[in-house]
Structures are given as structure tokens and as C-alpha cells.
Amino acid sequence: MTDLLDVYEDMRLATVGNSGKARNAALRAGADVETEATSLVGYRSAGYLLIIGGESAARAAAEALGGSVHKTLLVTDAPDGAGAIDDALVVLRGSLAGLEGHLGKFVARMQTPNGQALNLSELNGTAHPYFDLVLDLQDTPAMSAEVPPFGYYAPAGNEARLQRALAEIPEMTGEFEKPRFFNYNPDICAHGDSGLTGCTRCLDACPTGAITSLGDLVDVDPYLCQGGGSCAAACPTGAMIYAYPGPRDQLARIRAMLAAYRQAGGETPVLLFHDEEQGAELLREAAADLPEHVLPVRVAEIGAVGMDIWLAGMAYGAAGVVLLDTPAVAASVRRELESQISYTRPLMQGMGLEPLRLQLLPAGQGGAAEWFVTQTAYAPIGNPAAFETFNEKRSTLRLAIDHLHQQAEAPAAEMAMPVGAPFGQVLVNGDACTLCMSCPQVCPTRALTDAGDKPQLNFTEDLCVQCGLCQTACPEDAITLQPRYLFDAEQRRRPRVLNEEEPFHCISCGKAFATASVIGRMTEKLQGHHMFQSEDSLRRLKMCGDCRVTDMFADDLKGGSVPKVYGMESK
Questions:
Q1: Of all helices (H) and strands (E), which one includes residue 458?
Q2: pLDDT at residue number 571
Q3: Which residues pair with 457 in a beta bridge?
Q4: CA–CA separation, 105 and 147 (whole Å)
Q5: Which of 88, 133, 209, 385 has the most CB atoms lying inside 10 A of its own CB?
Q6: Going by C-beta distance under 8 Å and a sequence separation of 6 or more, which residues neighbour residue 357?
Q7: 243-247, 249-253, 438-442, 509-513: segment of lowest average pLDDT
Q8: Calpha distance 272→292 (Å, rounded)
Q9: Chain Cα centroid distance, residue 255
Q10: Mind giving me the DSSP string for 170-237?
């Protein structure tokens, strides 16, 4: 991590007082922490470019690019026509029917007059199966992702952006690599179950469209993912974690920095998270004015750190946490950061920590000294934690919250949380619930469980992520969610009974097989059905499955007939 240390030394951060010298010690300690490398994602581009737009603009762009790339034009403002090769330039005329892909593998389709969608790479006179690059000159870009894929340029009438694209496109030929920014554990994903949809937080937060639903699980396209990190911050279970670096390595670095800062005599440390590009540049500009107690922490994207990192940082001894926002942060990532802050601040309040210890700071708001004026009033907790973490988000949160709560002078017993927070309880209407056990069958974290043969629904609040699958699965609309945080760890982890009944016993053999409410509902709903008009048919509803079949056969045998079985003929 020597390069990381060099970055901050080049910034010429102030080192006049004790806190400045302590900051240097903290930065060196952070640089010494080794982090686990993530795998890489590779792209290969041979320079096959598709230009989409009106003929005049498309030809002008092609001329500006010269012979640096192999160009195909899709002219959208002329009558449909066959492809043509004009001065070594492939020109196709028609409307775009679809565009998908990424650097090195774009697939574009053209709409024909007869309604067909033809693959353009099969019409451009080459054997190359894909387009490597796309320059989209349409006023409304064909690809709508907030952060477009690598290799796609859509200036949308902005001349400066067009010139940047024309300058960059010739350089986008060859082999490229980027980190694989995420790891996904489908075993603890709360997205869905049995065809029902629960948590969609990662899909809603992703600015690139890299995450798609597969029904019960999600899929992440590593070629579309650009490391915004909001999916990991939003994920309530930790099924999606950031891997550049992972939370364990990130927290090990923060723990080492804060310990070294204290040991060197520093006081009231504030963690400043900034991204490695625009955030680092803004920090460089303000370095001379940055208060000495502020410890910069470089991350790939500020959206990649969430409440587990922030609260653990405070548990390790940080007086506050500031997230440096920049214009480069995608709007969806910023929204998710604001949501995570809205979930974290009530927790802080319940632990006796002022909510403004956590701030999302828009870049350019005043001078650097003004950025942190509110932070200097806060002291860190008296007994910093030393726990280690293992890339398990919920475990990290429990450790951090429990430690901070223990240090509070007047801690709350519980705190109400905003809707959407990943903590809370499940409330069951006992009059409506029939103990059908649909809810524990879909619960992804086993917060809801049955009791085997006993008609009893149990709930462990510590495991609940408020995904809503139980609410969706309930056929009686008997379930509601109540976001809150219960600080008593023992009470939070103790299973409690939400609803129970005495079992209903088969009227024939005496075996328990349902509850009285289930039998009552079935009888009430089916007594008007034409197949349940007889006394015997209603009576069978009160029998277990085996006795019900036996009783039906007995009636048929009394009548001298043998019931017809599917696939066989009675003889």
C-alpha cells in the first residue's frame, strides 16, 4: 500500500500540531495493512465501432476519427435501405431496434420495414460478431442506464462530451482489465422465494443495470458492474459484499489507523471517506486547509461503504464520519447513501451519539475548515473496540452497535426506524392467522420458524431484515412489519411466540394434522361449493389425509363399485 501513502504525502497535509503528526502515523499504519486482492474482469476490443445518428453528424464523427477504428454507420434520418460501402465506410439505413452489451461485445439490431430485427454486425461486411464500441449521437440515447457501460458514448448533443468521446475512442483498442468489485452469496439473499418477490434493494440502487432478477435470486453482470458499491451498502443480509477491498480488510485498515492515531497523541479523529478519483482531487485542492484531526480514507467509491463500516469506525474510536460527495457520484448511489444515513442516525441517537457525527458532505461547500466545524465538538467513545470482522455484515453491525450501546451514558431500550430499514419485528394478527406456515417457508434468514408438529409460529428479531416476503406470502393478510431496533441483545436473539393454537385432531384416527382455525376456514369457504353439499364431504374435511381417502373408498365399496383410478379402467 506504499502508493496509497504516497498519494497523501503528495497532498502535503498539514503536520504542524500533535494531531497532524498523529495523522501521519495513522496513514502509515493504514498503508501497512495488507488487503486481499479481488479477481479481474477482462475486456478485448478490436476497434469495431458503430456510430448511430443522423447522416450528417454520423459522417462528421466518422471523418474526425479517421482510420483509427473500423466504422459502421447506422443512419437514422434517411429512408430504410440496404447496406452500402462508401469509401471503405459501411453505411446502413434504418431505425435502431435494440442495443445491449459492453466494451468488446455490443449487439445492435436494426428494424426492417417488414418488422424483422436484424443483427447489424452480420450486415457490416466483416466476420467480427460484435461491435466493440458504440458512439450514439441520438438526442435520446439508446441505453438508459444512469452509468452507461464501458465502450458506450452518448454525448446527447453536448459538444464537449462529443469531443472527449472522439479523443478517447481511438485509445479503446486492445485488452483491458478492471477489478471484479463484488461477491454474491445466494444462500442468504432475501430477493425472493417460491416465485414471490421480497427485497429489491440492490436492483433499485444499482446505477449501471448490472443486477437483474432471476426470480428467487439475482444475477450480477461483472462486465456491466462499475463498482458503485450501493448494492453492497443496501443489501440487508450481506449477500452482496464489496470486494475492492472487502469489509474485513477495510475495517482492519481503519482500526489500525485509529489505534496509531491515539498512540501518537491525536485527539477527536474524524474519518473522511473519499473516492480515488474526483474525491482525491478535491481533497488535494483543499489539503492545506484540512484540519489535522481529519483522517482521509480512500475507497474506490463512497457508495461502497455503509452503516456497518461507519458504526464500526465509531466503535473503533472515530469521533465522526464524513462522506465526501462529488458530482461523479451517480444519483441512485447518492439516494442510497442518504437512505443508509437515515437508518443509521436513529441508531446513533439511541446510543447517545449525536446524529451529525455522520455527514454526507457535498463537495465545494465552504472551505475545508468549515467542513468539519461541527465535528470538533464531539469526543470519541471512551473505550474503543478491538473486535475483528469476517465479511459478515450483520455480525459486524451487531458487534459495533452492542459496543457503542454499552458505552452510552443514557442508552435507549429501542428506537423506531424509518420504513425500509433492515431491522424490526413482525406483527401477526392472531384473529386472522390460521398458522398455515406459509411465512416460515419463505423467510430467507429463518427469523420466522415453526415448531415442528406443534401449531406455533416463532420469531427471532435479531435475524429479521424486513424483506417483506412473509407479508407477501401470507394468504390471510395477517402480517405487518414494524421497523425498529431493539438494543437488548439477549431479548433480540431470544425466539418468541407470535401465534399458537391447540392442534386439531382427526375425528377418525385422532392424529393432529391442522389447527381449529384452518379447519373452520376451510369449512366456511367450501360449504357453498357444489362438491361439498353432503354431510359426508364436510365431515371429511375434519379428517387427516389418510383417513379421508379411506373414508371415500369405504363409501364406494358399500355401493358395490370400485372407484376409478387415473390411468386404469375399472373391471
A1: strand 454-459
A2: 37
A3: 450, 499
A4: 17
A5: 133
A6: 314, 319, 320, 321, 348, 375, 378
A7: 509-513
A8: 12
A9: 25
A10: GG--EEEEEE--EEE-GGG--SEETTEE---HHHHH-SSS-EEE-SSSEEE-TTT-----HHHHH-SS
